[in-house]
Write a structure and sequence with these properties.
The complex is a heterodimer.
Chain A (H helix, E strand, L loop, with lengths): L9 E5 L4 H8 L8 E6 L4 E2 L5 H13 L5 E4 L12 H30 L2 E6 L12 H20 L5 E8 L2 E2 L13 E2 H14 L3 E4 L3 H10 L2 H8 L2
Parallel strand pairs in A: 1-2, 1-4, 2-3, 4-5, 5-6, 6-9, 7-8
Helix pairs in contact in A: 1-5, 2-3, 3-4
Chain B lengths: L1 E2 L3 E4 L6 E8 L3 H9 L7 E4 L15 E4 L6 E4 L4 E5 L4 H9 L3 E2 L11 H6 L7 H4 L6 E7 L5 E4 L4 H6 L8 E8 L1 E2 L4 E9 L2 H11 L5 E8 L7 E8 L27 H13 L4 E5 H5 L17 E8 L5 H13 L3 E9 L13 E9 L5 H14 L3 E2 L12 H4 L3 H11 L8 H5 L4
Helix pairs in contact in B: 9-10
Classes of the chains: A alpha/beta, B alpha+beta.
Chain lengths: ~230, ~450
């Protein structure tokens, strides 16, 4: 349950090894008695997110063990595993970033509605703004997730449950190691701060950094020939 | 009886809110029906007038059982007892009792508390040093259990003491019998004294308790945080006074657009005026003396939409150094409280979760927006526990669940008795979940 300062007592991080996810939950206002449940390839609940039956079982057990105030969904594949082909990477990204995450959100939102309280934080991406030649496959999985999350957020109005979306741009982390750093890049720590701020503001969408909101508007308005030129890195 | 769709309910501090269905019951049979048909995993919680400051009277996703219609009062003026429904308020009981020149021996600062709530939080008043808490004047309590059975509990039963201070988590209190005291009039004789700091306050309260029925001090925690204030000492009076109106409460705070007016500057200004106002010395109407807070309805709105928290704790006599630590911390946070109250408690009851025990109890209010307050109170809680003190759960909104067993060492005993009274875990509340009480 939240305390009187509206800070969460029990938090679940799906993607327990996600640097951004950990950065968010560890930068919440300090509370030594807060329970942080890590869910993923290792952690308090071991979960292969692509396993449907496992998703159902773990979310069930998570909520059976007590009310959850905040779930941060931080699973994701960039789809750039050099051991896999382009198609294999794409299918894996669709599975993790879209299919499995959407199913998790269905399961989590159902249980949270029964609680009649709670917040879900979905980590989307700047990549979902407009398809770029160099990351449209990844971008499409995030676009699908983002669309679904916005729809779900709307249906949750009045239920006591809130869904918020964080859209980070380029974050300097293990996931993006070796990649050319894009403009407006931020650190994992800064991304975490934006996540915590998003939880306080309760705005539906928070961009990290905030300037990306305007960059997105510009991106969307450029004619295709211009956009193609600037999106080739 | 109607079970509503989920509605948003807040605590008195307005810093908690949750969605629950409400079942308003008017008869015992209806209460049994709600219990029998409770299919939800989120359970039921009996509630009164929602004067608990935090989340004690909230049950997110579940059902709140509203007993305000159980409001029968039967006074036996020969035996000096009253049998009251759980929905009867302190105000209503006082009014009825006064007609027989009787009065409840223990009343809290507000009259807007139900009999059920009075038991569930084992309320106390400024007479605690002489009379103990509310449960001390109760002869029996009738409780509807989750099994559907109605039991009559006496002070010789451990279930009685589990229900006292039990926050509604043992069953639905339906009715109770309490003792009343005789009065020779409807007034109180009051003397007030200004004191320049905490140690003068402690000294005067300590010396006065034996000669006065009602003793309490208002303490100024703003400005230089010396703990100056006004000590109020009272006895039941012998002169009959005129009581205005039919007991309607005073003006209501107008809608102020959700803003918070409580800042260090406004508090300092208010407290300066309050400290210097003329001291009462004489006879006042009993109901006004007992319930000064009820003068303005909805006073809790003055803190705005973010709400406020009340922090009340008790510390043993001889451990007053804890106040120095507290005041120093509040001074550095520039956290100013305009409703500080200090009182000396008398004896405790056998109830495992009842709050009052011998020592000093201090009560403070703060807006939730004071920077650094959450962190500071977390640290202060640990000092409090180390000094053997504890927090009043009905006021709480942020204590760590891990400290609760240290503050209430008999909680395991309470849990055991509670689970025999409610093996299916039907009674649930947001506070019980937050503090892992059950």
């Amino acid at each position: 349950m939240l305390n009187g300062f509206k800070n969460p007592g029990r938090v679940a991080l799906i993607g327990g090894q996600s640097e951004i996810g950990l950065s968010i939950v560890t930068q919440l206002p300090e509370d030594k008695s807060r329970e942080i449940v890590l869910i993923g390839r290792s952690g308090d609940y071991v979960l292969d997110v692509t396993d449907k039956a496992a998703r159902e079982r773990v979310i069930g057990e998570l909520f059976d063990a007590g009310d959850v105030d905040l779930v941060v969904i931080a699973v994701g594949l960039l789809g750039n595993d050099s051991k896999l082909s382009t198609t294999e990477n794409l299918l894996a990204a669709i599975d993790v970033n879209f299919l499995s995450t959407v199913h998790l959100l269905e399961l989590i939102s159902d249980r949270m509605k029964q609680q009649a309280h709670g917040t879900i934080l979905v980590i989307s991406s700047f990549a979902q703004v407009r398809p770029r030649d160099d990351n449209f496959r990844y971008g499409s999985t995030k676009a699908g997730l983002d669309f679904y999350a916005r729809g779900l957020a709307s249906t949750l109005k009045g239920s006591g449950v809130t869904l918020i979306i964080l859209r980070p741009g380029f974050v300097k982390s293990k996931m993006t190691e070796g990649m050319e750093i894009a403009p407006f890049a931020i650190t994992v720590q800064e991304c975490g701060k934006y996540g915590v701020a998003a939880l306080k503001s309760r705005d539906l969408v928070t961009w990290a950094p905030s300037i990306l909101k305007y960059v997105a508007l510009i991106f969307k308005s450029l004619p295709p020939s211009v956009f193609r030129k600037i999106s080739h890195r | 009886m109607l079970i509503t769709d989920p509605v948003l309910v807040t605590g008195w501090g307005r810093n908690f809110s949750s969605l629950s269905k409400r079942a308003s019951i008017a008869t015992i049979a209806q209460a049994q029906e709600v219990v029998a048909h409770a299919a939800d995993t989120r359970g039921l919680l009996p509630v009164g007038l929602h004067r608990s400051y935090g989340d004690s009277a909230l049950n997110s996703g579940g059902v709140l059982v509203d007993l305000s219609a159980l409001n029968g009062i039967e006074i036996d003026s020969v035996a000096r007892t009253a049998i009251v429904g759980a929905g009867v308020t302190i105000r209503e009981l006082e009014s009825s009792a006064l007609q027989h020149s009787l009065f409840p021996p223990v009343v809290p600062g507000t009259g807007f508390v139900t009999m059920g709530g009075a038991i569930a939080s084992d309320i106390h008043g400024k007479s605690h040093h002489k009379t103990g808490s509310f449960s001390r004047c109760v002869n029996w309590i009738k409780v509807l259990l989750s099994s559907g059975e109605i039991v009559q509990l006496f002070p010789s039963d451990q279930e009685f003491w589990a229900t006292v201070g039990g926050l509604g988590l043992t069953g639905i209190i339906l009715e109770l019998e309490l003792n009343l005291r005789e009065l020779s009039s409807n007034s109180a004789d009051v003397k007030e004294f200004r004191v320049k700091d905490l140690s003068a306050m402690i000294d005067l309260l300590g010396r006065s308790d034996k000669d006065y029925e009602h003793t309490v001090a208002w303490i100024d925690l703003s400005g230089d945080y010396r703990g100056r204030g006004v000590v109020s000492l009272g006895n039941y009076g012998s002169e009959q006074v005129k009581i205005r109106g039919g007991g309607s409460s005073g003006p209501s705070l107008p809608s102020i657009g959700g803003a918070n007016f409580i800042t260090p500057l406004t508090v300092k200004a208010f407290n300066e005026v309050w400290f210097r106002k003329p001291l009462k010395h004489g006879t006042v109407a009993l109901n006004k003396y007992m319930h000064p807070l009820d003068g303005v309805s909805n006073w809790n709105r003055i803190y705005g939409d973010a709400g406020f928290l009340q922090y009340q704790f008790v510390i043993d006599e001889g451990r007053e150094e804890i106040f120095e630590k507290l005041f120093a911390g509040l001074r550095s946070l520039k956290a100013a409280s305009f409703l500080g109250v200090l009182k000396k408690f008398g004896e405790a009851t056998p109830a495992p979760l009842s709050f009052p025990r011998p020592g000093w109890t201090l009560t403070l209010d703060y807006p939730t927006t004071v920077p650094g307050l959450e962190r500071f109170l977390q640290g202060f809680d640990e000092e409090l526990v180390a000094a053997g003190g504890r927090i009043y759960l009905i006021k709480d909104s942020r204590v760590s669940h891990s400290l609760v067993p240290l503050m209430y060492p008999e909680i395991e005993k309470w849990r055991t008795i509670r689970s025999t009274m409610d093996p299916t875990g039907l009674w649930q509340s947001d506070q019980a979940r937050r503090l892992r009480l059950c």
